[in-house]
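Q: Give me the 3D complex with PMV.
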Amino acid sequence: MKKTAVAHTNIAFIKYWGKKDSNLRLPYNGSISMNLSNLYTTTTVEFSDQFRHDSVEIDGKEEPMERDRVIAHLGRIRNLKKVKTHAHVVSKNTFPSGTGLSSSASGFAALTLAGTAALGISLSQRELSCLARLASGSACRSIPSGFVEWVRGDTHEESYAYSLYPPDWWDILDVVVMVRAEKKYISSTKGQTVVTTSSFWTARLKQIEKKIIHLKKSLQARNFTTFGSIVEAEAFEMHAVMMTSTPALFYWLPETVLLLRSVRLWRSEGISVYATVNTGHDVHLICEKKTLPALRQKLKHIGFWKQSIVNYPAVGAYCTDQHLF
Ligand code: PMV
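A: Here is the predicted complex, encoded as structure tokens.
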């Protein structure tokens, strides 16, 4: 059977960085995110006895690294049904992969939904989220809709993501600025293995539960200034842990720093915008919808508007009949 699914990537407001179990991808802490409307993956999966092996095409190419991860995930899906049937997978992203825009989140969420549907396996949203997590941690947050919390959990079944609020809860947006096309030099999966070598890591873990509670309160109250301040400080904290790990992980490029400094300047001029950065160099600018015209002017002025994508809060993963082959 052939099935197609769409999943949006997400931006984490409270980050996932570090796994206490790398096989099950159980995180050291919970995280909070929002799905992004214009950054998504469409994936078609067909299982057939006619296929002699699994084949994977991502954005028109066979990417060896991603191919192995996709095939490993197909294996997990096949195990649920105890079958050995091979699959053909075609996947398309609306954005470049490997630069820190979290294509693995949308990619593995879409693969999880299309793959299980193609084998006729019916799972609850929570079960889909757990299954997606095994392929890429942040992928579990791309299954539910809108504003999402990933509950840390100590077992496979307890570590899942659920929707805190639907996409229309709050008119905030994420203007992602792709500062350069180059790929990040170390993947999240690799980078996370050294998290415990940072002396800042224990300090981070000590207060993260409190931070999650504060962020959730500001989201509930739609208090943008408090929300934005927590989000930006959280991104800097995660990057401080990265930079003080052994080996040190330094993902920022000069343009990243330029944007992070500009955001401070713009705030002092009365433009309420905050920044966050994932693994990589691209900068996500978070603001309310009413602030977009002023932000657009600023980005045009420093020459970054053309490399920007405006994202609104988006729905969770869903199936479609628009197959890619
Ligand atoms: O899910 P991964 O392995 O791509 O890791 C994601 C890590 C961050 O993007 C830096 C943080 C997050 O919570 O999305």
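A quick observation: The helical segments are 64-81, 103-118, 125-135, 188-191, 201-221, 224-243, 254-268, 292-301.
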